[in-house]
Design a protein that fits this description.
The chain is of the alpha/beta class. Helices cover about 35% and strands about 20% of the residues. It folds into 2 domains: about 1-65, Alpha-Beta Plaits (2-Layer Sandwich); about 85-330, TIM Barrel (Alpha-Beta Barrel), CATH 3.20.20. An 8-stranded parallel β-barrel has the order 7-8-9-10-11-12-13-14, surrounded by 7 helices. Strands 2-3-1-4 form a 4-stranded antiparallel beta sheet, covered by helices on one side. A two-stranded antiparallel sheet has the order 5-6. The longest helix has 17 residues, at about 315-330. The structure holds phosphoenolpyruvate and manganese (II) ion.
């Protein structure tokens, strides 16, 4: 449920309403808008709020929220959320392209990639340092050393960085070294991880699990947002279907649906969606046309030699050409790059 305060409500009236709701044993989440304050109310029995708060000084309206995800829903927050990541806005007019290798492999590899991302017009550098691999014998990432190389690349190029957190015990380290914490598809329902990220307040990109419904993704986002962290980017990265030609099936309908259901920015990872480099340009353009706020793309200076996800990594030339095409699609849908 949300309690909408009137435009004229005073600070004291808002605080009195918050106190009263909390006395009922319910949780409050005030959102102080430019025009009005709305208070999200979470808890099992909200009948007391309905009985006592209608007509309370400063209260304009009490609206039940029907969706199971409350704060991630557009019902609670009709306007788009725009997240500021170290000066880069995500969810606004500009399409945000995050690009980089699947895994940070060496200092030279990530620095060269960062320079190219910047030159081509990308806004954020990606690179995994702690890799969740299906086989325990595959390359697991450089760990903290990888985070340090990413931070050095950020320092040199000014590009914010995104990297995947797999273990909540590393959260402080990630808050220090990275601008966006990536929650991988495998961890979408790691509720301890989500709650800790929520408490940290750090910007997070939440990937959809390969077998998760749209609603499951929004409920996972709710675990972060309910802790007071609204800096969440949703990411469609393909789902498991009967099709085996592509690595996963890119669910573009999820992009359009998420934009309707939620105020949070939505981006597409075409790389893990299809797993085949030469399909990625088409899927990237389609994603922007479908309303995505950005892309997360794997690129590598030498895809054939990549330690992880080489077959889906774009070389620098293909990526630079793709950026030119995306610029045109962005313009066609009234956005910038
Ligand atoms: C990744 O981005 O490198 C990754 C492991 O992706 P996903 O979690 O979508 O499989
Ligand atoms: Mn990868």
């Amino acid at each position: 449920m949300i309690v909408v305060m009137s435009q004229e409500a005073t600070r004291e009236q808002i605080e009195a309403v918050l106190r009263k709701i909390e006395e009922f044993g319910l949780q409050t989440h005030p959102i102080y808008g430019v025009q009005k304050t709305v208070i999200g109310v979470i808890g099992d029995d909200k009948t007391k709020v309905v009985e006592t708060m209608a007509g309370y000084p400063g209260v304009e309206q009490i609206i039940p929220i029907l969706k199971p995800y409350k704060f991630a829903s557009r019902e609670t927050h009709p306007q788009d959320t725009v997240i500021d990541v170290s000066g880069v806005e995500i969810g606004g007019d500009k399409i945000v392209v995050m690009a980089g290798p699947c895994a940070v492999e060496s200092r030279e590899q990530i620095l060269n990639t960062a320079r190219l991302v910047k030159l081509a017009g990308g806004s954020i550098l990606r690179g995994g340092a702690y890799k969740p691999r299906t086989s325990p014998y595959s390359f697991q990432g450089l760990g903290e050393e990888g985070l340090k190389y990413l931070a050095e690349a950020r320092e040199e190029t000014g590009l914010p960085v995104i990297t995947e957190l797999t273990d909540p015990r590393n959260l402080d380290l990630f808050c220090e070294y990275t601008d966006i914490i990536q929650v991988g598809a495998r961890n979408m329902q790691n509720f301890v991880l989500l709650t800790e990220i929520g408490r940290s307040g750090h910007p997070a990109l939440l990937k959809r699990g390969p077998s998760s419904k749209i609603e499951d993704l929004l409920l996972a986002a709710e675990y972060i947002i309910k802790e007071g962290n609204r800096n969440i980017i949703l990411c469609e990265r393909g789902i498991s279907t009967f099709e085996t030609y592509t690595r996963n099936t890119l669910d573009l309908s999820a992009v359009a649906a998420l934009k309707q259901l939620s105020h949070l920015p939505v981006i597409v990872d075409p790389s893990h969606s299809v797993g085949i480099a030469n399909l990625i340009p088409a899927m990237s353009m389609a994603s922007i046309a479908a309303g995505a706020d950005g892309l997360l793309v794997e690129i590598h200076p030498n895809p054939n030699a990549a330690l992880c996800d080489g077959p889906q990594s774009l070389d620098f030339e293909t990526f630079s050409n793709l950026m030119k095409k995306i610029r045109k699609i962005a313009a066609a849908v009234g956005r910038d790059l």
